[in-house]
Every structure is written in structure tokens, then in C-alpha cells.
Amino acid sequence: MILAQHMVRTASVAGFEDEFIFGTVIIGLAVIPAFLLPAQAVVQKEAEPGFSLGE
Q1: pTM of the full structure
Q2: Which DSSP string do the residues of 16-29 spell out, in sequence order?
Q3: Which of 8, 35, 54, 55 has its CA 20 to 30 A from that of 18?
Q4: Considering only CA atoms, which of 17, 20, 22, 16 is closest in space to residue 4?
Q5: Which of 27, 29, 53 shows the shortest CA–CA distance to 42?
Q6: Residues 19-34: tens digit of each pLDDT
Q7: Dihedral in degrees, nearest 10, Cα atoms 10, 20, 2, 14
């Protein structure tokens, strides 16, 4: 959270180019979990008792 606040300050001081980069980072932080959550659900499903990857 502190890092994000620091990035906001840096972006607002440095100008448009860094604001664009900051916006890209925010979009990345929003999109990446959207891909990770389904993958995590699959992993948890495979890790249920009675299911073995090795056999």
C-alpha cells in the first residue's frame, strides 16, 4: 500500500509518461489476479483428498 502511494506521487510529479506507466501497472495488478484466481481454483480442486497427481 505504501509502495502504491509512493508510485502515485512519483507519477503525478514526473508527468504524463510515468502516469501512463503507472496506469499500466494498475491495469496489470487488476488483470493478473483475474487470471490467477481460476488457476488457483483448479489447483485447489486437484489437491482435494483422494486425488493424486502422481498416480
Answers
A1: 0.33
A2: HHHHHHHHHHHHHH
A3: 35
A4: 22
A5: 53
A6: 788 888 888 888 887 8
A7: 0
